[in-house]
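Q: How do we represent a protein-ligand complex in a form that can be generated token by token?
A: Start from the inputs.
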Amino acid sequence: MSRIFSGIQPSGELHVGNYLGAVRNWVSLQGEYEAFFCVVNYHAITLPYAAADLRLRTREMAIGLLAAGVDPDRCTLFVQSQVPEHAELAWIFNTLTPLGELERQTQFKEKSARQEQVMAGLLNYPVLQAADILLYLADLVPVGEDQIQHLELSRVIARNWNSRFSPDEPFFPEPKPRLTPTRRLVGLDGKGKMSKSIGNTIGIMESPDEIWGKLRTAITDPARKTKNDPGEPDDCPVIYPLHRAFSPPETVKLVEENCRGAKWGCVECKRVLHENMMAELAPVRERAAELDANDAKVTQILDAGAEKARAVSSRTIAEVKERMGLPLAR
Ligand code: AMP
Ligand code: TRP
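Then emit the structure tokens for the protein with tryptophan bound:
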């Protein structure tokens, strides 16, 4: 069975963008592959943060993933800092990563532009990401479109290490992205991608009323000035993609007909979407509340996950050190 790996930062809420772009795919792939999913708190500390806050959000993210259907009986869910091999392999990979590759990463350019002082960890962020994936020798990585460039770099790093230390037969696989139909969900403002840092998100744990408030005011096809003006679903940047993700195919067809034929107004269209979204998200919210009240269970799941992850990561790091002439920790 081939392996998949993916990670999510605990720096924001679980929103509909990362749910549809990645997490829903984790849930559907976990039975098909040997799956490792990680709350990447070492990545989250590459930008300024508050320690107490990070602890809380790490826990919340784990709860969100479990509530969304990540099943510890069918995959390994863990917190990155509980598996020290991630940082170890990242250091090793730093010695095999060309500086120029790091400097041209789009996410680095965007994030560093917003910082007064740029720390080395922000630049080296994708090296840690490569270590995350390659520690488990994973070849498939379910992520959204914005991670494609980071995965290209993971392949460069894998290739560089292989050619130096395993020239006859590649030791590390070259990981490839696995995208969903919603590889890049646009935010409620209809401009950039849905992202916590822009503040244009719908959180998957928000109440039905909060979600309705956001859908109601979300931008639609500008051609539909009144409900009698016909529109084009492909010009509706948020609501139509959400219908395609949450509504059954018959409803999506109806949405297309009613929009093109001006047979209903955008508000009616949004009401139907709201109903279909809540059918999927309300149970997630309930499960999260249950887990939230059961702290010991969450701790036990994450501790067990870290132990399962270490069983694999320690073997990889031993092999890597052996081939690189580095004695093992005792
Ligand atoms: P992040 O929240 O940045 O840690 O992202 C977690 C996962 O969600 C990554 O695989 C991202 O590619 C994916 N993701 C984040 N935002 C979006 C979006 N607006 N549309 C699709 N996928 C997304
Ligand atoms: N950089 C990813 C993001 O922002 C998070 C991440 C860290 C990740 N390590 C990973 C994703 C390994 C996939 C595989 O979304």
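Residues 35 and 249 are 29 Å apart (CA to CA). Residues 8-9, 12, 17-18, 21-22, 143-144, 146-147, 182-185, 193-195 surround adenosine monophosphate (ligand 1) (CB under 6 Å).
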